[in-house]
Structure to design on (899 residues):
């Protein structure tokens, strides 16, 4: 009864949402309010403009090659040598991204477990992730589908008490520090949302490319509205001082009489597992396709080790991490999320190249 | 010396077996098949005696048939497997008396028997080789040799002792049928057949077990079940090559998708109504002879967490009970590890007053929370196991020991804290709520690794353990059906029977991961209501 490995549009949407929200929820809010805290809700508008544009590029590019990942079709577009270079670029991107996310995770964990060495957390997380990746994208998709309603409900409930303390006067005056900083801080959600570029690895696993459209649209709408609400609420509750917190949204959960922040973070661990295992999967798939391996499973464990090492050596500490995400990461990410897909799409349109159609499901 | 006498001599000499008996012939299936039934009665009797004659329960009786021109014959059977009354009335009586009464000649008897007119039993077949002879005698049928006839008549008159149909031991209901399966396959089939008077209900027989030759019955509803599912189950059953099947547990273990998983992937039940409900959902049932437990495939997690009474009770309470069950399923897994994690790592999460009372109660306890929990959980598991195995009269002693010694004395002695006793009790109650015994076993076992990881990494460890279990559940399949369906992959229609128990008038369609066509269960718009006009006019 075995059929080809497939994920549904809904699972894709959930994967994409986790891809952005899993880390955005506790990290991104620090950056979106750095320059002009009162205008942080504006970032949603920037997001509204840029993300659909990027999604359109990924979708039109992916639809041309419905049975191939970006690693497989780029040699068709730019030649074998350049294609391999692009493959390597994405390999480094996925590994570094996964390492950064893992580091973000261990940094937050070290707040709660001050005497446990962070390497323990990294090892636990990467072994879980390796297990997930070895089970395959179908299992990651199903796990996401199972976890999404639970995590969404718990997060929602945990932020509810914060609403009582919201003071919407905190949002005024608008454009306190001018328009430019308000717009500039809008780059972060776009960069975070741009991590959904990994959809270009998933086209072969979709029943048809229409599923990708649906999945991306659902993901966009969800991230847009939840982002808008979260940004507004967090400014309204925490005021101008919110940019001073490292994890502003986590502060919202502390207003109740119980210190439930760790419980909520525990649920977020599962969200992080989805994100990390998904990027881990993408990097394993990329490596196996760059090396033309038949199966990606042999490279999962070596990559897990590599990613853990990267997470410890790329960044020196939590301050360096914040500095990196604040200044270096956006251009680095935009290159992979926007420029390369755009470049490939232009070549595809000009040279009128298309990939083979999907074989029908057996 | 007649054969009868020889057998009696064998029986008399049982304590002192004749020489050479230990090196008797061993009859394999191939050998028996190659031995054709001969024409001479004497040869046949010799042969059957050499195969079965040394058994105490083997009976062979020689007859001489017909009014005149008598012909020799022999009836043989295994003593306690046939119904002696039936044998007398409908086999021996016609053969010995009625033939004489109607004045049938000996030579016409075979003809008369072949036409089926003489013997009034419902089933009578003819066999040609000794394999057929022996295998039918071994399953409780009566064989009949006639002189000068190269064949055997096999007359069905099974009648062995069996337990009567009683209430199932492990699955009780407040409302619902009180019948449970018993060890007899035929009776079990009749229990199902009585509930589904449908020509499309199929019972396929498969004989499994090289030595035991156990009848295993594959049961499904044609036109409703997904044909590939039946083919898959059938091929997995035919693949089994084992010496004996003593219980359906053998089969369950041999047809699972993932043999290393602690979670059962095949449903099992003692209730015929549950089997019928499963058949109507497009599942396949496997009945095993000599086992009162039927298997249901595929068995996904949520179908294992449902009780048949859910469908008999009012839907509101059934929904609440279901959630209670899900909650209990998770709590039986995590309560002890949560206790360990919170008392050791995350004291800030509980209200201060509660924490003070926990700290006070743990003050005299010499062990860390993990050791404390392990002591209590292991002794609880031991008590539970002892309660099952012990003879009834001693069972009371166990409950006294459990309640007094473990519960009270351990607390008074300061070995464990009172809170720990509550935790263990809660876990125990929660693990008993699972409607299927074997799904509770999975949580019982997985509790211990979770406790360990909680002791090492606190709540994060618990979460890591739970995520591993979740990943495992996501990767499991039962006969091609994902284990967590309909929750993931999502089937909205199926959620009506998982998140809630929707009323019957709303459960319009059969689960779509199982049934591909003929999905409608009930006519649309069957919601009952008061009459449009009042009856008084």
């Amino acid at each position: 009864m075995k059929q080809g490995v497939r994920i549904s549009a809904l699972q894709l949407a959930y994967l994409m949402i986790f891809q952005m929200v899993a880390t955005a929820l506790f990290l991104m809010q620090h950056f979106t309010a750095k320059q002009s805290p009162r205008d942080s809700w504006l970032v949603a508008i920037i997001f509204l403009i840029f993300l659909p544009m990027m999604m359109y590029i990924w979708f039109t590019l992916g639809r041309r090659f419905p049975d191939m990942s970006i690693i497989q079709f780029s040699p068709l577009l730019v030649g074998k040598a350049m294609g391999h270079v692009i493959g390597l670029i994405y390999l480094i991107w996925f590994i570094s991204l996964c390492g950064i996310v893992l580091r973000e995770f261990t940094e937050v964990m070290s707040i709660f477990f001050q005497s446990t060495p962070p390497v323990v957390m990294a090892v636990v997380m990467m072994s879980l992730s390796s297990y997930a990746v070895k089970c395959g994208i179908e299992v990651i998709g199903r796990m996401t589908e199972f976890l999404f309603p639970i995590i969404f409900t718990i997060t929602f409930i945990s932020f509810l008490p914060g609403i009582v303390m919201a003071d919407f006067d905190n949002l005024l005056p608008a454009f306190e520090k001018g328009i430019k900083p308000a717009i500039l801080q809008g780059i972060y959600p776009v960069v975070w949302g741009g991590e959904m570029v990994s959809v270009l690895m998933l086209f072969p696993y979709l029943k048809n490319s229409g599923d990708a459209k649906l999945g991306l649209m659902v993901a966009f709408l969800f991230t847009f509205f939840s982002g808008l609400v979260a940004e507004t609420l967090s400014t309204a509750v925490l005021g101008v001082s919110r940019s001073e917190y490292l994890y502003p949204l986590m502060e919202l959960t502390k207003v109740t009489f119980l210190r439930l922040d760790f419980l909520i973070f525990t649920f977020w661990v599962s969200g992080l597992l989805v994100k990390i295992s998904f990027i881990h999967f993408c990097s394993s798939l990329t490596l196996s396709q760059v090396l033309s391996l038949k199966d990606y499973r042999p490279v999962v464990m070596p990559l897990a080790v590599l990613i853990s090492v990267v997470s410890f050596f790329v960044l020196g500490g939590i301050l360096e991490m914040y500095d990196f995400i604040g200044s270096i990461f956006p251009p680095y990410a935009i290159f992979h999320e926007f420029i390369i897909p755009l470049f490939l799409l232009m070549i595809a349109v000009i040279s009128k190249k298309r990939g083979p159609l999907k074989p029908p499901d057996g | 010396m007649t054969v009868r006498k020889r057998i009696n001599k064998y029986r008399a000499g049982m304590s002192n077996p004749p020489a050479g008996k230990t090196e008797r012939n061993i009859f394999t299936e191939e050998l028996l098949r190659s031995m054709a039934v001969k024409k001479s009665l004497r040869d046949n009797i010799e042969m059957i005696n050499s195969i079965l004659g040394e058994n105490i329960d083997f009976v062979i009786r020689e007859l001489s048939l017909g009014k005149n021109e008598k012909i020799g014959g022999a009836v043989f059977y295994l003593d306690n497997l046939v119904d002696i009354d039936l044998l007398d009335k409908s086999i021996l009586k016609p053969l010995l008396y009625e033939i004489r009464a109607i004045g049938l000649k000996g030579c016409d008897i075979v003809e008369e028997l072949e036409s089926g007119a003489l013997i009034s039993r419902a089933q009578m077949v003819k066999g040609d080789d000794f394999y057929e002879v022996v295998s039918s005698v071994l399953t409780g049928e009566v064989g009949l040799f006639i002189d000068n006839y190269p064949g055997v008549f096999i007359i069905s008159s099974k009648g062995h002792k069996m337990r009567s149909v009683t209430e199932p031991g492990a699955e009780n209901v407040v409302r619902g049928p009180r019948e449970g399966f018993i060890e007899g396959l035929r009776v079990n089939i009749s229990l199902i057949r009585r509930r589904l008077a449908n020509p499309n209900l199929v019972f396929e027989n498969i004989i499994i077990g090289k030595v035991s030759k156990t009848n295993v019955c594959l049961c499904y509803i044609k036109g409703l079940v997904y044909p590939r599912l039946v083919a898959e189950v059938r091929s997995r059953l035919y693949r089994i090559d084992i010496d004996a099947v003593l219980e359906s547990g053998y089969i369950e273990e041999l047809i699972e998708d993932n043999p290393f998983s602690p979670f059962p992937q095949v449903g099992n039940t003692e209730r015929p109504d549950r089997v019928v409900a499963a058949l109507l959902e497009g599942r396949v049932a496997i009945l095993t002879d000599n086992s009162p437990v039927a298997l249901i495939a595929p068995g996904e997690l949520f179908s294992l967490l449902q009780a048949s009474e859910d469908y008999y009770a009012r839907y509101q309470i059934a929904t609440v009970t279901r959630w209670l069950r899900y909650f209990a399923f998770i709590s039986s897994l995590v309560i002890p590890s949560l206790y360990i994690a919170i008392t050791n790592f995350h004291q800030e999460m509980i209200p201060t007053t509660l924490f003070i009372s926990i700290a006070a109660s743990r003050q005299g306890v010499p062990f860390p929370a993990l050791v404390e929990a392990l002591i209590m959980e292991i002794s609880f598991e031991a008590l539970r196991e002892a309660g099952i195995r012990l003879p009834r009269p001693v069972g009371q002693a166990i409950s006294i020991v459990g309640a007094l010694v473990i519960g009270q004395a351990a607390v008074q002695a300061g070995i464990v804290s009172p809170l720990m006793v509550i935790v263990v009790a809660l876990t125990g109650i929660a693990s008993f709520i699972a409607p299927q015994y074997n799904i509770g076993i999975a949580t019982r076992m997985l509790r211990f690794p979770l406790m360990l990881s909680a002791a090492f990494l606190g709540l994060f460890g618990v979460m890591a353990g739970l995520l591993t279990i979740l990943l495992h559940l996501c990767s499991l399949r039962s006969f091609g059906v994902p284990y967590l369906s309909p929750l993931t992959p999502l089937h909205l229609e199926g959620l009506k029977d998982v998140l809630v128990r929707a009323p019957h008038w709303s459960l319009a369609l059969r689960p779509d991961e199982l049934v591909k066509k003929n999905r409608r269960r009930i006519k649309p718009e069957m919601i009952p209501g008061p009459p449009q006009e009042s009856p008084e006019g």
Observations:
- The radius of gyration of chain A is 20 Å.
